[in-house]
Amino acid sequence: MVYIIRRLMQAVFLAAVMSFVVFAGIYAVGSPVDILIDPEATQAERLRLIAQMGLDRPFHEQYLVFMGNVLQGDFGNSFIYNRPALGLILERMPATLELAFAAIMIAVVLGLPLGVYAGLRPGSVGSQGIMAGSILGFSVPNFWQAIMLIMVFAVMLGWFPVSGRGEVGEFLGIRSSLFTLDGLQHITLPAVNLAIGHLALVIRLARSGVREVEPQDYIRFARAKGLSERRVVFVHILRNILIPIVTVVGMSFGGLIAFAVVTESIFAWPGMGKLIIDSIQLLDRPVVVAYLIVIVVLFIIINLVVDLLYSLIDPRIRIDGGKA
Q: Can you tell me where the transmembrane regions are (predicted)?
C-alpha cells in the first residue's frame, strides 16, 4: 500500500512538471489569437476577446490560473471547440484505448509463440523466416505499412473497410467496437498496422530469452528428469523469460495510447491522436496540456500495474518498502 501511494504521489509530481513544460513550450511558440480571431475584426474586438480568454496576462499568471482550475477538476475550455478540454479527451479516449488494446493483443498472442519457436529451433527454416519477418517489421515505416494494408486488403481484395471506427456494441456496461462484427472489420487494419513493430519486438525478446535460458542447468535437469517438452517450455522456460517481455509490453501499451497519431490519421480513426494534432496546429493550449497530463498519469498507472505483475509471475519478487 505504501508503495502504491508513493507511486501515485510521483504521478502527481510528474504531471505537474509536465504541465509546466508543455504550457511554457506552447506559450513560447506563439499566441493562438491570430488563428482564432477573424482577420477582419476591429482592434477593440481583438482586445476584448484576448482579455476574455485571459491571454493578456503574463505567463506565470496564466499558468497559475490554469493549475488552480486543474486542482478543481477544470482543465479549461478548448479555444477551438469551446467545450471542456478534459471532456473532449475522454470522449475520444475509448477509441484510442480499444485500438491500442487490439494492437498489443496481436503483438503478444502472435509474437510470444513465434519468438519461443524461433528460440527453440534456431537453425530451422521457420525460425529464419520468423526472424527475417521481424527485421522487416522493424524496418518498414509505419505510414508505408498502412498504405500497403489499405491498398491490398481494402482496395484490391475488399476484405476490410478503409477507414472509420464502425458500429459500437455494449457488453457488461462497456461500449466498444470490439463487440460487433462491423467494429472488428473496421479495427483490423489499423490494429495490425499499429501492432507490426511491437510484434517484431516481442518476437526478438522471446527468442533471445529462450536462447539465454535454455542452456541453464535447471532446464537440462528438468529434461533429464523426463519432464515433457511442453512442461519444460511452459513452466520452466516461458516463466523465466516473461518479466522483460511484460516490462516491454507494458511500456509499449502506453506508447500505443500516446503515439498512435500516424495510424489514427491515416485510417481516420476517431481517437485522441487526431484531436491532439489539430490542437497543436491551432495552439489549443488547454487541450494539449490536458492530453499530456492524462498520458503521464496513464503511463505511471501502467508502470505500476507492470510492477505488481512481477510478483505474480515470479513469487521470489516482492514489492517491499517501495522496491520491486
A: 12-30, 99-120, 141-162, 187-206, 241-269, 289-313
Give the range of the structural domain holding residue 28, as residue numbers without chain letter: 1-85
Residue with cell 484531436: 275
Query: 285: closest CA among 17, 92, 41, 62?
Result: 62
Distance CA 186, CA 224 (A): 50
Q: Which of 154, 129, 141 is nearest to 193 (CA)?
A: 141
Q: What is the pLDDT of residues 213-248, one digit of tens each?
A: 888 888 888 888 888 888 888 888 888 888 788 888
Specify the number of domains making up the chain.
2
* Whether residue 181 sits in one domain with residue 102: yes
- The pLDDT tens digits of the residues spanning 11-46 come to 778 777 877 887 777 777 666 666 666 667 777 777
C-beta of residue 284 within 8 angstroms of C-beta of residue 225: no
Say if residue 77 is in the same domain as residue 213: no
Residue 320 is classified by DSSP as B
Cell of 192: 495490425
Backbone phi and psi for residue 174, each to the nearest 5 degrees, phi listed first: -100, 125
Packing angle between helix 238-258 and helix 285-313, nearest 10 degrees?
Answer: 170
